[in-house]
Specification:
CBASS_pafABC_assoc_protein, WCX_dom, PafC_HTH, proteasome, four-stranded antiparallel sheet, 10 helices, alpha+beta, five-stranded antiparallel sheet, SH3 type barrels, Proteasome accessory factor C, about 350 residues, Arc Repressor Mutant, subunit A
Length: about 350
């Protein structure tokens, strides 16, 4: 790329820069850069301090953004292609905008998707700050104009009635007795819980509560609650109870959970995208070695059995033995005819 001698090279800006920051920080910076050029075009000669205040960033961050703009522009990336600007002391003026002369706007598809998502959020029971959601929805609908004039139907999940029941109990501050299916252990238990709040995570509704049985805060999926009874007693949450940090999802792998290693074929590589993995490496041929944390080995056994013959347990040995034992038991069940079929000579016995 050709760069005029008087243009400073873009440098890494540490944790705040696009090179070493998080994906969210990078997305925020990209949006700011796309709006920065039209902002400066409308205010030639503006002081950097004033611009930084308007944009809600520090002067240092704004200067780093301007340095990055030096190397942005049209294909060719030589003189006359890149965004250009002039500095007069602490004032800056855009002299060539490379076509970025309008603020960032949502596309019709993006605007409609956002409207639908906000409408669904507004109709979800237990959502806090509903007024803020409705204000944001009104602004976007107004800006989108005729695009959102057509009726859009928003439905809450099939467990909506259960969610409404749980939300009402949370609002009334009542303890609950629930019958709950735990998928990790493949068991159904009865528990008494003291609800803290309702949550929506990845499209699923949860009630976060103090579980008196576990003596800890737990998340209960609404669609796995088979029965719920509101008790005639207030919810009492101990002072040591702390809400879950769900910024990285519901399941949070930790070093104290069992680590399993699987050898997977091409047809089962999808698990590396669906489950959080600690390591994915090459194995023999087209096989991969995949390591991931699991809640317990009972869940892992059912998980591996459900994947089929294209997956082999490498470690731990205990899990490999459990999978082998379950597979042998299943084969033996198929190999042994039941009383009804064995009594009928017309029905041949199944063989291994």
């Amino acid at each position: 790329m050709t760069r005029p001698a008087n243009r400073p090279a873009a440098r890494s800006s540490g944790p705040r820069g696009t090179g070493s920051g998080t994906g969210r920080a990078s997305a925020d910076r990209l949006a700011r850069l796309l709006n920065l050029v039209p902002y400066l075009l409308a205010r030639p000669g503006i002081e950097i301090a004033e611009a930084a205040g308007d944009l809600g960033v520090t002067e240092r961050q704004l200067r780093e953004d301007l340095e990055l703009l030096w190397v942005c522009g049209l294909p060719g990336y030589g003189p006359g292609d890149l965004i250009d600007m002039a500095f007069d002391g602490d004032r800056v003026t855009i002299t060539y905008d490379a076509g970025i002369d309008r603020p960032l706007r949502l596309t019709p598809d993006e605007a409609l998707a956002l409207v639908v998502a906000l409408r669904m959020l507004a109709e979800t029971p237990g959502v806090a700050n509903r007024e803020a959601v409705e204000r944001a929805l009104a602004k976007i609908e107004s800006a989108a104009g005729d695009l959102v004039a057509a009726p859009v139907e928003v439905r809450i999940p099939a467990d909506g009635r259960r969610v409404e029941q749980l939300s009402a109990a949370v609002e009334r501050g009542r303890a609950l007795r629930i019958t709950y299916y735990t998928a990790a252990r493949d068991e159904t238990t009865e528990r008494t819980i003291d609800p803290l709040r309702m949550l929506m995570v990845a499209g699923r509704a949860y009630v976060e509560a103090w579980c008196r049985r576990a003596e800890a805060v737990r998340l209960f999926r609404a669609d796995r609650i088979d029965a719920v009874t509101e008790l005639d007693e207030p919810a009492v949450v101990p002072p040591q109870a702390r809400p879950y940090d769900l910024t990285e999802g519901v399941f949070r792998p930790s070093a104290d959970l069992p680590l399993i290693t699987l050898r997977v074929g091409r047809g089962e590589r999808w698990i590396t995208e669906y489950y959080p993995c600690e390591h994915v490496g090459a194995g023999d041929g087209d096989q991969w070695l995949v390591s991931l944390r699991v809640t317990d080995l009972g869940w892992a056994r059912r998980f591996v059995l459900g994947l089929g013959p294209d997956v082999t347990v490498v470690a731990p040995a205990e899990l490999a033995e459990q999978v082998r034992g379950a597979a042998v038991a299943a084969l033996e069940a198929y190999a042994t005819p039941d009383d009804a079929t064995s009594a009928d000579p017309a029905v041949p016995a199944l063989r291994r």
